[in-house]
Write a structure and sequence with these properties.
Length: 314
């Protein structure tokens, strides 16, 4: 595959981002993806600035390639992590779960390329006005915190709405998904769930097993009532949350019920009580591979599909 606007802008080999998955995407995963030619992204999640600084330092030791930092804007530590990103001058900041407007000047002054996740055209336009280098159009097929639109509907509309490179995310697991994203107008793709099975992904073995054995309807969305819909693999926690979500339980109690569940999944591998975030393509993740194998597979498969499509149009 030839270079794209994104590979040229960021100085990376392949137009593949690894999603900045909270609690999951650490320096080791990000560096492995960057070393394999994609853009690895460390997730700040709900961690404080000291943790984030140590992860950035570690990634710099593990790779001389560009990598990114994802800042989850609902985090209580978002302010100090935003400052850490500027101090450490990471190549790329991606943001999720909110509006990064108040940090844009800080990051742009530090020479950082800011690439927010946008769940709608309004947010894409706002990001463009505020100086974003590109936007990630993430559809609701994704794991974790999601917007309302699907990738199929969101990506072409965002491409039409802003004069910026667009990275498509949500529901992409192989070369067919990558080719489809390009057909919709994207310049690159971001994958999260596919990297959950990576050898360099330091999640609990039970998390990997859950993804590897997931079927097509394995995931479910909870959390709409509090305005933070989250897609995860159906298990006891998701069922219990679903049962109480629309009862007269208070917002605070509902929030408390979900608190700490991602950690229980990622660190403890608690199959019943953890919240195992994963996208709708979990069933397409069928083997443990290194990041290099995953990325080479993806690019070869995308080339195969694009060549097939080119043949069809002759
Ligand atoms: O951020 C994600 N995925 C995530 S974050 C996360 S941790 C979390 N824990 C508990 C509650 C919520 C999150 C797990 N997965 N993806 C990027 C993303 N951003 N998807 C959707 C959005 C988004 C949604 C609304 C971006 C902006 C936005 O603005 C609306 C507003 O009102 O701020």
């Amino acid at each position: 595959m030839k270079t794209s606007k994104i590979t040229e802008m960021l100085g990376i080999k392949y137009p593949i981002f690894q999603g900045g998955m909270a609690w999951i995407a650490d320096a080791e995963l990000a560096a492995a993806v960057s070393n394999a030619g994609g853009l690895g992204i460390i997730a700040a999640g709900n961690a404080d600035a000291d943790y984030v600084r140590s992860q950035i330092k570690k990634a710099k030791e593990l790779t001389d390639k560009p990598f990114g930092l994802n800042i989850m804007l609902l985090s209580p530590f978002a302010d100090e992590v935003a400052q850490a990103a500027a101090d450490e001058k990471v190549a790329v900041v991606t943001t999720g779960a909110g509006n990064p407007a108040k940090y844009m000047k800080l990051w742009l002054d530090a020479g950082i390329k800011v690439i927010p996740v946008v769940p709608s055209i309004a947010f894409a336009k706002l990001a463009a006005r505020n100086g974003a280098a590109a936007v990630i159009a993430e559809g609701g097929e994704s794991g974790g915190h999601i917007g309302e639109l699907t990738t199929m509907a969101l990506v072409p509309q965002v491409c039409d709405a802003v004069d910026l490179p667009v990275i498509a995310a949500g529901g992409i697991a192989d070369g067919r998904g990558i080719a489809a994203a390009f057909a919709l107008g994207a310049d690159a793709v971001q994958l999260g769930t596919r990297f959950l099975s990576a050898k360099e992904c330091n999640i609990h073995e039970n998390y990997k097993k859950k993804v590897l054995k997931a079927g097509d309807t394995a995931t479910v969305v909870t959390g709409r009532r509090l305005g933070h819909p989250v897609r995860s693999i159906r298990n006891q926690f998701a069922r219990e949350y679903g049962k109480i979500e629309y009862t007269d339980i208070s917002d605070q109690e509902l929030d408390d019920f979900a608190a700490g569940r991602l950690r229980m999944a990622v660190v403890d591998g608690d199959e019943k009580n953890g919240c195992f975030l994963a996208g709708q393509i979990a069933a397409m993740v069928t083997e443990e591979q290194t990041c290099e194998e995953i990325i080479e597979d993806l690019m070869n498969d995308a080339d195969r599909v694009l060549n097939k499509l080119a043949e069809m149009s002759k």
